[in-house]
Amino acid sequence: MSGPAVRPGGATHLEPSARARQAADLGERLVAAWGSWGPTMTRNARRVAFVSDRHGTPEVFVQDVVVGDEAPEPVRIRLSDDPVIRVTWSSDGEWLAVAIATDGGVKQQVWVVRPDGTDAAQIAGSRYQHAELGPWSRSGHRVVITLPSTEADQPARSYLVDPVSGDRDDLAVGELIHILDLSVEERLVVLRDGQRGHEFVVVVDRLTDESHALLADSPDGSAEIAFLRPAPASETSPLVAYVATEAGLPRRGLVAQPVGPHGWRGAPRRITERDDAELEYLDADDAGRTLLLVWNVDGRSELDLINTHDASRTPVPDLPGYVVTDPVLSRDGRSVLLAVEGPLRPRELWRLDTNALTWSRVTGVPGLPEVPLVEPTLERFAARDGLEITGWLYRAVEPATSSTGGGPDVGAVPPEPRAALVHLHGGPESQERPTFSPQHQALAAAGITVFAPNIRGSSGYGRDFVHADDLGLRWNALADVVDCARFLVSNGCADRSRVAVEGRSYGGYATLASLAFTPDVFAAGVAVCGMSDFATFYRDTEPWIASAAATKYGHPVDDAALLDSLSPMRAIDDVTAPLLVVHGELDTNVPIGEAHQVVEALTARSHDVEYLELAGEGHEYRRATSRAELVRRMVAFVAARLA
User: Fold this and answer.
1) Cα gap 545→562, rounded to integer Å
2) Cis peptide before 428 (omega within 30 of 0)
3) pTM above 0.85, yes or no
4) Is the peptide bond before 72 cis (omega within 30 degrees of 0)?
């Protein structure tokens, strides 16, 4: 699929300054700093499989877990040229299951392969059918796949698949189901269903063909993580469902729900919750004796271990980075593998000894440019209605020649207001966090302060905050974007006439909306894979994406008037700021037509608009070459327009 022959219209082609070129070079070098993530362990926790982009595209790697010695070189398992999204190890250690982005786009395939790279086979998914990789059975080697509907108003179907024979057994049917866990004997299935922000968890008894909602008597609130484990001796039930949920809580915490066959349920009890944090990840050993909890505290991660037999809680000290992703507890509970990163270092795998509470590095990262990088600060300010907004501030610095000649020295705060950019994350139920961002670092090196806020609708700050932009409340979220620009001006980070706005996915939409509805605020914009018209978005996106989105954005029929008023295309002629539009060629989440109609409308009136289409990419840009091209183009565009 290729785009129309759109060109920069009336754009003024400005040659990047020497500093902008140097900053773009730094961004490319940081993009090339590969990472490792998504670990999955063998039963004895001695081997790990994970995803890494050390060769430019995410692939599967396998290596031994060595404690105290230099990590061995991982073995690469090649399945196709398409990017790998996820890998999981079967319970018996005989197979790996791998989710792959078909052609690099939104739809996924599921493959199985032996840990030595043999017997690889594609078992689900194609260019026309998305397949979701679910969990392995807790004994043996059958894996769950879910096939969402390819037509509106049709259900998704889940199956248990044998990788040897390819045989499929029916598992569950539902509108928007995701399989979370299976009981050991495969009788009970834990699944999540529901639209965005209103997910609920159900236990299906395959023997009686009955389903029973967990936490059915709880107040409104979603639940996204749940699994079954043997109950502690103090419980009267054989099993306990541990659920990460916000039901009845201001922020997501941990609830234990006793369960059994034939729909039996005991009284749920709260295990732990925090006023200052949300429970983000949850795992347990096979015996259900040890629970691993990862808390999100203003974007930083904190870890706890809970002993379910004596209810003791052990905070884990000395986390080797700011942000944890993909934590997995070993089946015997003795170790944890996880990915950790921060603003100054890409994702790498670490191992935690849960008894000694000591850390050891499992994978490394390549050498980074010998240039000091920006350590962001967490800022807080009040929006116009008094709601507190937080964001990470990457301050621009005075240019200076590095002693190594590798790029600008980013060590000193600029003496006077300069240019700034407001970066808007996707979702909107995502969160800006202090992770490794080549884009933010390159812009700061170019002399542009970056403010990456969590406007209302973001996750990490409780149930009320994440729903504060639903439907007609979206106008308040767009007002937050304007308030972010005012914050940058009022605290001396930018001149009023030198603030840009940029975002991807929902952030791309918010960028277009800000330029169209408040054209006097921003001096330039970069919209990356953003929606421009809700009517065409709902018409062209994947059916399962459209179905899930109605609770967040609005129903395409029932809320048509609201969606039209919120669509940037209705006011596209009011855009005055220069605009760079970026989209992936294979994006079927936010279809590429959303970009084309913006560029065509602006080009028709000779507006300063540029368009970058990334070949072979979908909604996520997984190849290093694509991310490097995006950073280079963005730095050059923004630096020239804010000069």
Assistant:
1) 19
2) yes
3) yes
4) no
